[in-house]
Amino acid sequence: MERIDLHIHSIYSDGSFTPEEIVYRAKKLKLKVISITDHDSISGIEEEIEAGKKLKVEIVPGVEMSTDVGNDEIHILGYYIDWKNKIFLTQLKIFQESRAKRNKKLVERLKELGMPVNYHELKKLAAKGGVVNRLHIARLMKEKGYVSSIGEAFEEWLNPGKPAYIKRMKVSPFEIIQLILDIGGIPVFAHPYLSKRDDLIADFVKAGLKGIEVYHSAHNAQAEQHYRKIAQKYHLLITGGSDCHGKNKDKILMGTVNVPATLLENLKKEKEKLKCSLLI
Ligand SMILES: [Zn+2]
Ligand SMILES: [Zn+2]
Q: Is the pTM of this model over 0.90?
């Protein structure tokens, strides 16, 4: 079976590999098509496309946007986005600035809690133009011996309700679905099993959601089955990916999730449909 991976993070957010390294690995793993979907960042796409041309790996330009509903974080993937669109880039900048402010406050809070980390050291963990997020902070906390694992950093300190939780600007998933549609992209609900907010899916669909991530490294066979049924019910496209963060997570996940390449045909059809509707 030919395989694809439509959910990978690079050094432009919280992954450890450069886009070129990711494409090279994809080639070795015989992945036919990949998409780097950095958090609120498109800074790796150009390098990804260049490497894809060189190594003959097909690239889907993508992004993973963080949004909020109450205290729950909902991630929306955008595929085939017009990543040079000015309105989109302005919006990304606003999100990135809000995240940078949050990070500064978080560093202050950690200092108060007796776990100092250096803001500049933190900034260096993501590539220039990339996004620094809580996984980077968790990594530093582990490196400095404040926690014994990344999981502990989140569970004891960084998650909502924990002492080092600092809110960032709230972003509505409905706005993001619309934003992705506005730039010709396909909005997809990422790893719904992790979000545990199936109650929102009907409203997302009304807002223009086009797909749901059925295959994901955190989805077991039961979850896959469950979300496949939901995709059928709402006529959503099925997508999938490993959500590989390189060495920043316990395991390098690329190649570990079997996502059939045939899914891409429907994604491409949808892309054409959306492009036509933008021209009307
Ligand atoms: Zn995510
Ligand atoms: Zn992700």
A: yes
